[in-house]
Design a protein that fits this description.
- Helix content is 54%, strand content 8%.
- The protein is an alpha+beta fold.
- Helix 1 packs across helix 8 and helix 6 runs antiparallel to helix 7.
- The protein is globular, with a radius of gyration of 21 Å.
Length: 462
C-alpha cells in the first residue's frame, strides 16, 4: 500500500458524504452573493472563450454525433462529453476565469462545463445543477489546496477532475458511496501537464481543463454503471507521488463550515494570474504618465515570487505565450493601459515598440516574497527613467483578490460587457439570474445563451 492511502481513502469517503448531503441551503447569504458573481463571471468568460476563432474551429472540426448539450460559440448541440470538453477548453483560453490563490488554480473551469453539459443532457433543474456545481467546486478546491505539485507541473488537468467527478455523480443521483467512488476513479485520471506547454503558448494546454471535465463525467459514469468497488485512493500515487505530494488533512478540514467560493479571485487582465500584480502596477504608471515608450526608460526591474519568476519569455508565437510573459504584459500595460484579449493578438504583440519596451524588463526571483505565499503574492517594480528619476512600486496582491481589492457585482457586469458587448452581456446576466432562481430547467437559459452566442460569433473582435 502506498503511504498516505488510508488517510486519503477516509477523506474521500467523507467528501462523498458531504457532497451527497449538500444543499444550497447550507450556504450563508454572503456565500450566495459570491456564487452569483462566480456564476456570472464564469458564463461570461466561457462565452467569450467560445467565440474565439480557435474555439469555433475546434468545434467545427470535431466529428461528433449530435446531442442536447450547448457549446457556446457554435449553433449546433453536442453530446455531453464533447460539450464538456469543448466548453472546458474554451473557458480558460483567454486567461480570465475565476481562481483561488490557496489552491493555486481554477476550480470553476474544471467543474462548471461538466455540470452544464450534464444538466442539459439529463434535463436537470437549475437548482440541482448549481447544487452539484458548488459541491464539485468545493471538492476540487480542497484537492487543489491539499496538493503540492512538483516544479514544472501545471495545475490544469491534475486535481480538477476529482471535483468534476463529484459534481457529475451528484447530478446523476448517486448516493454518498457512489460519489466517493466517482471521486476515487478520477484520482486515476490525472494527466501529466508540463508548465512549459503554457509558456510556449500551445493551445493544447487549454484542453487539459476540457479533459478534466470529460474525465469527471467518465469517472462518475463508471462509478454509477460498473457496480460498487472499494475506495483504493489512487490519488495517493497520482497526485501524491507522481505529480506532487498531498496532505489528506486539508481535504476535510473545516468541511461544510468554510467555502472556497468565498476566498477566490476574479481576473481583470487577460493573462496568467502571476502576471497580474505587475500589470496592476504598470497600469497605475500609465494612469499617471500616459503611454510609456521604450525611449522613456532605461530599465524595468520586476521582482516576484518563485511561481511567477519563470514567466520571462521575449518570444510570443501565440496569444497564450504572450499572456504567460511578464515582459509582454508589463510592456502592454505601460503602453496602452490595459491587458484585454485584443491586446495579445498577432498584430499587437508584434509591434516593434512593444517588443522594444519588453526587452527592457528584467524579471528576478525574490526569495523573501516566497515566504508570504499564498496569502500575499507580492511583486515589486523598479523603473529607471531616462530622465534620471526612479520609481519603486509594490503590489501585495492583484486587484480582484477577495482579501485585497475584491470585485463587486457591478465590476463583474462591467467585465462581461467589455468582453461581449452590451447585448450578449445582457443575455449572460439573464441566464445567470434564471439559473440562480432554481425554478426552471437548466436547459432553457443555457439553450438561449447558446443561440445568442452563435448569433454573435461573427461580430466580435477578440
Amino acid at each position: 500500500m502506498h503511504p498516505g492511502v488510508e488517510g486519503i481513502r477516509e477523506a474521500i469517503e467523507r467528501l462523498g458524504s458531504f457532497a451527497a448531503d449538500f444543499s444550497l441551503a447550507s450556504l450563508g447569504e454572503s456565500t450566495m452573493v459570491q456564487l452569483r458573481k462566480v456564476l456570472h463571471d464564469s458564463l461570461a468568460v466561457l462565452v467569450s472563450g467560445g467565440l474565439l476563432p480557435e474555439s469555433r474551429g475546434i468545434a467545427s472540426a470535431l466529428p461528433a454525433p449530435g446531442g442536447r448539450s450547448s457549446v457556446f460559440g457554435s449553433a449546433k448541440q453536442f453530446g455531453v462529453i464533447d460539450a464538456a470538453w469543448l466548453n472546458g477548453t474554451a473557458m480558460v483560453a483567454l486567461e480570465l476565469d475565476e481562481g483561488n490563490k490557496t489552491i493555486r488554480g481554477h476550480a470553476s473551469a474544471h467543474v462548471l462545463p461538466a455540470v452544464l453539459a450534464l444538466a442539459e443532457e439529463l434535463g436537470a433543474s437549475s437548482r440541482d445543477a448549481l447544487t452539484a456545481f458548488v459541491a464539485g467546486h468545493e471538492i476540487a478546491s480542497r484537492f487543489g489546496a491539499a496538493v503540492r505539485l512538483k516544479p514544472g507541473v501545471h495545475p490544469h488537468g491534475t486535481w480538477g477532475a476529482l471535483g468534476a467527478a463529484a459534481a457529475a455523480a451528484k447530478l446523476m443521483g448517486a448516493d454518498a458511496a457512489g460519489i466517493a467512488s466517482a471521486i476515487d476513479n478520477a484520482g486515476a485520471l490525472a494527466i501529466a501537464t508540463p508548465f512549459s506547454v503554457a509558456t510556449n503558448g500551445m493551445w493544447i494546454r487549454n484542453a487539459w481543463v476540457g479533459a478534466s471535465n470529460a474525465s469527471g463525467i467518465w469517472a462518475a459514469t463508471v462509478a454509477t454503471g460498473s457496480g460498487r468497488t472499494p475506495i483504493f485512493a489512487p490519488a495517493a500515487e497520482s497526485l501524491g507521488a507522481i505529480l506532487g505530494e498531498i496532505d489528506a488533512r486539508v481535504l476535510n478540514d473545516g468541511l461544510g463550515r468554510s467555502w472556497f467560493l468565498d476566498s477566490g479571485y476574479f481576473k481583470i487582465h487577460s493573462s496568467c494570474s502571476y502576471t497580474h500584480p505587475a500589470a496592476d502596477l504598470a497600469i497605475g504608471v500609465f494612469s499617471e504618465r500616459g503611454p510609456v515608450r521604450a525611449e522613456d526608460v532605461d530599465a524595468i526591474l520586476v521582482e516576484t515570487h518563485h511561481l511567477g519568476a519563470g514567466l520571462r519569455s521575449l518570444e510570443w508565437p501565440t496569444r497564450l505565450a504572450a499572456m504567460f510573459s511578464i515582459p509582454c504584459v508589463v510592456s502592454t500595460a505601460l503602453g496602452v493601459g490595459h491587458c484585454l484579449p485584443s491586446d495579445f493578438g498577432l498584430e499587437q504583440r508584434s509591434l516593434a515598440e512593444r517588443r522594444e519596451l519588453a526587452a527592457k524588463v528584467e524579471l528576478v526571483h525574490n526569495p523573501d516574497f516566497d515566504r508570504e505565499l499564498p496569502a500575499r503574492r507580492i511583486t515589486r517594480m523598479t523603473i529607471d527613467w531616462r530622465s534620471g528619476e526612479t520609481s519603486v512600486l509594490q503590489a501585495e496582491n492583484p486587484v480582484g483578490d477577495s482579501a485585497y481589492r475584491p470585485l463587486d457585482q457591478a465590476a463583474i457586469e462591467a467585465k462581461a460587457e467589455r468582453l461581449l458587448g452590451p447585448e450578449l452581456a445582457a443575455r449572460v446576466a439573464e441566464a445567470t439570474e434564471l439559473l440562480l432562481s432554481g425554478g426552471t430547467a437548466a436547459q432553457g437559459p443555457l439553450s438561449g445563451l447558446r443561440t445568442a452566442a452563435a448569433r454573435a460569433a461573427g461580430g466580435l473582435e477578440v
